[in-house]
Amino acid sequence: MKPNRAMTFLLTGTFFLVVYLWKDDYAVHVTNHLQVYARKDASQNRPPTTRSSYVYSWPSCQQNVSAASITGFTSLPGHIQNFLYHRHCRHFPMLLDVPDKCGGADKSVEVFLLLVIKSSPENYDRREVLRKTWANERLHNGVWIRRIFISGTAGAGFEKQRLNKLLELEYREHNDILQWDFHDSFYNLTLKQILFLEWMERNCPQARFLLNGDDDVFANTDNMVDYLQSQKNNNGSKHLFAGHLIQYVGPIRDLRSKYYIPVQVHKSDSYPPYCGGGGFLLSGYTALVIYKMSKSITILPIDDVYMGICLAKAGLAPVSHMGVKTAGLPLPSNKLDAHDPCYYRDVLLVHRFQPYQIYLMWHRIHDPNLKCGTS
Ligand SMILES: *[C@@H]1O[C@H](CO)[C@@H](O)[C@H](O)[C@H]1NC(C)=O
Ligand SMILES: *[C@@H]1O[C@H](CO)[C@@H](O)[C@H](O)[C@H]1NC(C)=O
Ligand SMILES: *[C@@H]1O[C@H](CO)[C@@H](O)[C@H](O)[C@H]1NC(C)=O
Prior knowledge:
nine-stranded mixed beta sheet, binds 2-acetamido-2-deoxy-beta-D-glucopyranose, Spore Coat Polysaccharide Biosynthesis Protein SpsA, Chain A, globular, alpha/beta
């Protein structure tokens, strides 16, 4: 992006952040117990310089048999029962760690934007394309962008071993994966989020800002840096939580919905305001506040709502971006190309892109010959 374009972008203040609510890619897998094992050599990943150390092997979390005595338990769907049995589990062995991702806790102040991308083990193609496009680690406008994928385990038996091996290979080549030994499922996304925040407090506590998002979004990280740098009174040490704001909603009590939350999981009929989980920006300060709050808040399976609950408890509010669109980029006419790079040059984030579409769009918006009308 040329400097004058960046300026126009900031002055007009037309940021779009488009996030769809659906996360269909996470099927709700219900499996029985996975064998829990800690990689023998995991401790080798610990550099000698880290101040605090992580316990790499936790005893496997026991299911809470008393959960079965909750009223109406037997009539709940299997995945909800499974959730209730394991709701209290918050510690899992780390299989892959990158403790020096931010240069150590003290140096982490030099990380301006940490991209924290939720990715399931099998999403190899998505990770590959992100590494080459918007999640490429680089200096932009004089500040550092760093990338980390966060993952659990998938499958069982040989398939689980194969997928772990895949992540390990990628990890060796790119040093960008945190993996814990828990089942990576839709209902465990909150757990993944909490485990990441715990890692951040330990290894990257001073990162200025974070993008927390999915691996199937198109994120214009150049624009994100420009936007965050324009927050003149906030260098990351104050509250910021921005994205696609959702408010005045509550749990879906319809059993057929993927988002079904029975009263046994969340009694209240309302949720506090939150930002759609496809992608949101937050300051390092706010991330650590959320982590602190999470310690005394029982896990709710919907991760983005859970973040809103933590914020509310801290007395903080999420905000919406100007020009936020909830249902994709509205086109003036259906004769226009929905993937015209001119529409995406000024956005912050758009949900649901295929890997090839991300690759193509990233290159097209950076084409020096790209000509767009005045928007
Ligand atoms: C186990 O479940 C029961 C019933 O929901 C609950 O009261 C108790 O606090 C749970 N125990 C733990 C360790 O979470
Ligand atoms: C979350 O992961 C744990 C550990 O693998 C597993 O026991 C539990 O069943 C998972 N929960 C859900 C709802 O998938
Ligand atoms: C960030 O801003 C605060 C004041 O709001 C200041 O105390 C702090 O030193 C600044 N941090 C850095 C790393 O510039």
